[in-house]
Amino acid sequence: MVGANIFHCRKQSWPPEEYVSRATLQLLDFDSAAPPEHAWRRRLNSHATILKEFSVTFMEAIKLMRLGIRMWSYVREEASQGRTAPINPFKRESCKPSATQGVPLGGMGSGSISRGFRGEFRHWQIIPSTCEASPVMANQFSIFISRDEGNKKYASVLAPGQHEGIGKSDDQGISSWGWNLSGQHSTYHALFPRAWTIYDGEPDPELKVSCRQISPFIPHNYRDSSLPTAVFVYTLVNTGKERAKVSLLFTWANSIGGISHLSGDHVNEPFMLRRRWSLWCSSTSQASHQTLVALYSDWTAKENPPVTFAIAACETQNVNVTVLPCFGLSEGSCITAKDMWGKMVQDGHFDRENFDSGPSMPSLPGDTHCAAVSASTWVEPHGKCTVAFAVAWSSPKIKFMKGKSYHRRYTKFYGTSERAALDLAHDALTNYKRWEEEIEKWQAPVLRDDRLPEWYKFTLFNELYFLVAGGTVWTDTALPAANRGSNQHESTTVVKAPEAKVDQKQGVTIEQSTVNHYDSTAGSSLKDKTTLMRYGENESMIPQRRGNKYSGHDMLGTHDDSDDVGGFLYLEGVEYIMWCTYDVHFYASYALLMLFPKIELSIQRDFAKAVLCEDRRKMKFLAEGNCGIRKVRGAIPHDLGTHDPWHEMNAYNIHDTSTWKDLNPKFVLQVYRDFAATGDLSFGAEVWPSVCAAIEYMDRFDRDNDCLIENDGFPDQTYDTWTVHGVSAYCGGLWLAALQAAAAMALQLGDRAFAERCKGKFVNAKSVFEAKLWNGSYFNYDSGSSSNSKSIQTDQLSGQWYTASSGLPNLFDDFKIESSLRKIYDFNVMKVRGGRMGAVNGMHPNGKVDETCMQSREIWTGVTYAAAATMILAGMEEEAFTTAEGIFIAGWSEEGFGYSFQTPEAWTMDGHFRSLIYMRPLSIWGMQWALSLPKAILEAPKINIMDRIHLSHSAKYFHNETSVKKIAEKVKCLGDSVFHCTC
Question: Is 950 exposed, middle or buried (0-12, 13-18, 19+ CB in 10 A)?
C-alpha cells in the first residue's frame, strides 16, 4: 500500500490553465464541458513528428539472416493463400506512423476507430486483424457561425488545415472546404475513455466551444462496455454582445478505412426516429418528445461481413437537425462536397425534404458516398447551449480467415439486424450522461489521491486505450454462426476437475472426488487416466466453442453461467497479429483483473482447456528451420491463434514454444493470483487439473535432477532473440514462484500430496538457484559462461513480482530483493539518460548497455512498468515512480518521442520504436495493483503458507515410479511428436 509521504512535492506539470485561459475554463465549468484537472494535453497546432522505426545492427543482421530468409518465404507463402502472416517485418505502411494519436472510439471487442488529437478519424480496425492506419479525411466536424444578421460569418473545419490539395479553386472534393483553423488557440485533453477539444475563440473570437468525446468503457459493466458507439457533446458559450446562429456539421464517408470507399455498392439512407427519453442538455434532465436523426451506410467488403454506420444528432426545442443523405467527392457526383459546403455556408442547414429521400443509389466502383448531419441553434449573448452527436457502427459477424464465424457480444443486446447501428446511436445519446457518471466514479479515487504523481494518474487511464484500439474481439455466447448444427461431428473428451467444497465450520477446503477426475498423485494423469484429444493434419484442434464452454461436454467441468461473458480476444499488437499472446498477457492481465475480472477468468479458462489438448498438425519453426507439432499436450500455448482462434493455436512460429521455459510457470502464477484475488473456489477447482499438468510438464527441463529447470541455449522465453544458457534469473525465478503458488493453491483446494511435492521441489530449487546466480548484489542473467551471463536484467525478479502481488511469502530474503532492485534502479534505469527513458533490459556490471542482441539493448515499456510494480511491493515507492516516469517522459510527454496512445513494445536509446500499439504496457496496472492490493490479498493468512506444508518421507522428491519426474516422462510419450520420446 502507498504510504502517506512516499513522494516529494512536485509541481503540477500539466495544469489546464497553461493550455486554456482561466476565463474560458470558468465559462465552461458546467455539464462536464471543461477539461479535467488531470489529463494528457496537446495544442492542435503541435508538430506531429514522424516516428522512427528500429533497425538492426550489422552483427544482428548477420545473426538473423537465415531467420529473415525463412520469414520472407513464409510471408510470401501466406500471401499466396490470401492470408496475412502473424509477424511480417517486411511490411511497410503507406501512411508513416506519426505522433498524432488520441483517444479511440467505442467499447471493447466490436471493432475500433481511433481519433487523432487534431480531430481526424484514423486507425480503422473494424475487420479483425486488419488495421487501416490512414485517416479518412472526409470524416470531420465543422462549424458555421453567423452574426449581425449575416454580416459577420465564420466557416471552418474543426481541424487544422493540413490536407493535400487545399486551395485548389476548381476542386470539388474536401479540399474545397474551409480549412481555416490554425489550432493556435485550440487544445486537446485526454483522459481515457473521454477526451475534450477546446476551441478558445477559434474560428470566432467571441465563441468558446468545447467538444467532449465519450465512449462506453465502464469497468465491471459487461454490457455497455461492448458497444461500438461514441458520443460528441458540443458546448457553445457566446461571449459576444449579439446573438449568434451556430451550425455544427458532422460528415462521414461510407468507408472502413484505406480504399474501401472506392469498392462500390454503398448505400446511404436517412432516418428520423421519434422516441421518448430523458435528454440531459444541462445540469437537469427534461423528459419530452425528442427527435433522433440517424444516417446509416451499408458497406460489404469482399468476403467480409457487412458493416453499417449511423451518425446522429439530437433535435431539441432549441436545436434543429437536418441531413444530406449523400454527397460525393468527385466532379461527377450529383451533389459534390463543394456543393454541400456552399449550402452550409449560405443557409447553415439542409432541406427538410431530405428526410424523405429514401435510400441512395448504390455507389459505382471508384466513387465515394458521404453523408452529413447538421445541428443548428441560436446562442444568445452570454448564453450557453449544448448539441450532441453520436456515431455507431454495426458489424455483427466476425469471420476469421480460415472460416470460423462468431457474433460479437453487443448482438446479445441489439441483435444482428443492419438497423442495430441506429439503435446504438440512439441509446448512446440517451445514456451518455450515465456513462460519464460511472466513469467519473471509477476514476475519482485515483485522480483525487494527492500522494500520486500527476503524470501517473492520467497515464494509468490512457494506457487502457489498448483494450479498445489494440484489436479486440468479444463474442457472444452463441455457437459460431457459420457452424450451427455441425458440431455433432466434433470429437470431445471429458476431463472433470475435483469438486471443491468448503467446510463452513472449519474454514477448510475438502476435495470430493468424481469419476475420471485428475489425480495429481498418479503417474498416468495425462495419458493413462484420460483420453485426450489428438488430431491429424486436417482436423480442428478443439471442438466448437460455446462462449466459454464447448459443445458436447465441457472439458474441465462446469462453471456458473453468470460468469459466461463470451469469448474475449486481444492482439499482442497491431503489428504482431496473434490473439491473447500469453507470455505478454502475463504483464497486461492486471488491467483486466482489476477492471473486468470475469473476462480475465474467461481467458484463463481458455488456456486451462488448451493445456490438456494436443494438435498434431505439423508446422515449421523459422529460427532453426526444423518442424514439429503445433500444440504439445501439457504445454501452455504461446497464443490462441491468428486465423482460427481457439481452434488453431500457436500462430507464433519463430521458435517451438512447447520448449519455452516461461509459459507454464506464468500460467500457474496467473491462475493463483486470480484465484487468490477473487476467492472463486469453483474457478480454482475447474482449472486445477491444468495447473497440475503445467507443473508436471516442466520437469522435463530439469536436466540434472536438482528440481530447478534449465534453459537450453537458445531464446526459449518471451525475450525471443536473447539467448539463455543453463539456469536463468528470469525463467528460474518464475519457476520458483510457480512452485510456491501451486503448493499454496493445492493446500487451499485440499490436494495436500501435491502441495508437499511442490514444496519439496521448491526448497531444493531455491537453494540451487541462489547458489548458481546470486553474486552478492543481484542475480546473474544466467549460469552460463557467455559474455552477458553476469548482465543485470531488469526482469530478473519477475517471479517475485507475482509472489508479492498474490500475497505469498517472498521468494528470497528482503536484503536480496532490495539489493537486486537497487542494482536495477542504479544501473538499468539511472544510467540510461538519467532515468528519463525507462529501464534498459540488460546492463553490464561495468555500466555499459548489454548489446548482445536487439532485445538486450532495448527498453521494454511494459517490463519497466512491471519492475516499478515490484519496487512498490518492496517498499521502494519513490524509485518505482522515477523508473516508470521514464516511460512517460520518453513516450507521452511533449519532449518525448510521440508514442502517446500507441505505446510500443520497445524503444532504443535513440528513440527508435519496435511494434507500436502493443499489449505489454498495460502492466502499468500492475503498479496500481501494488498500490491498492485487494482485500482478499491483504487479509490472506499472515502465516507463511509454505510452513503449513509439512513434508512427509513419502512425499519428498524421489525419482520413483509415482514421482513427478515419471509423470513428466509419460507426458512425453506423444508418438511422432517433436520430442521423439522412446520410453
Answer: exposed
Of 220, 227, 224, 186, nearest in space to 204 by CA? 186
All three cell numbers of 439? 466513469
Backbone φ and ψ for 686, nearest 5 degrees, come out as -65, -40
In whole angstroms, what is the distance from residue 225 CA to residue 216 CA?
A: 5
pLDDT surpassing 50 at residue 317: yes
How far is residue 28's CA from residue 34's CA, in Å, rounded to a whole number? 5
Q: What is the DSSP string of 441-488?
A: HHHHHHHT-TTS-HHHHHHHHHGGGHHHHTTEEEB-SSPPGGGTT-GG
Relative to beta strand 792-793, strand 508-512 is unpaired
DSSP letter for each residue of 881-949 = HHHHHHHIIIIISTTS-S-TTS--SEE-TT--EESSSBSGGGGHHHHHHHHT--HHHHTS-SS-GGGG-
Could you check whether the bond before residue 216 is cis, i.e. omega within 30 degrees of 0?
no
The Cα–Cα gap between 302 and 383 comes to 50
Decide if 50 contacts 31 (C-beta within 8 A).
no
Task: Judge whether 113 and 136 are in contact, CB under 8 Å.
Answer: no
Question: 686 near 497, Cβ under 8 Å?
Answer: yes
486 pLDDT higher than 80: no
Instruction: Give kind and range of the element (H or E) at residue 424.
Output: helix 420-447
The CA R_g of the chain, rounded to the nearest whole Å, is 29
Q: What is the pTM of this model?
A: 0.88
**Is 755:743 a contact under the CB 8 Å cutoff?**
yes
The residue count for the chain: 983
pLDDT digits (tens, 9 = 90+) for 3-12: 433 343 344 5
DSSP string, 79-101: HHTT---SB-TT---SS--BS--
Using an 8 Å Cβ cutoff, are 631 and 624 in contact? no
**778 Cβ contact list (under 8 Å, min separation 6):** 792, 796, 819, 820, 823, 824
CB 591 within 8 A of CB 903: no
Helix (H) or strand (E) run with residue 234 in it:
strand 229-238
Query: Is 75 within 8 Å of 85 (Cβ atoms)?
Result: yes
Q: Are 765 and 812 spatial neighbours (Cβ–Cβ below 8 Å)?
A: no
Backbone angles phi, psi at 423, to 5 degrees: -65, -35
Round to whole Å and give the CA distance between 290 and 124. Answer: 32
Question: What would the pLDDT profile of 740-760 be if each residue is shown by its tens digit?
Answer: 999 999 999 999 999 999 999
Average pLDDT, the chain: 83
Contact by Cβ (8 Å): 644, 403: yes
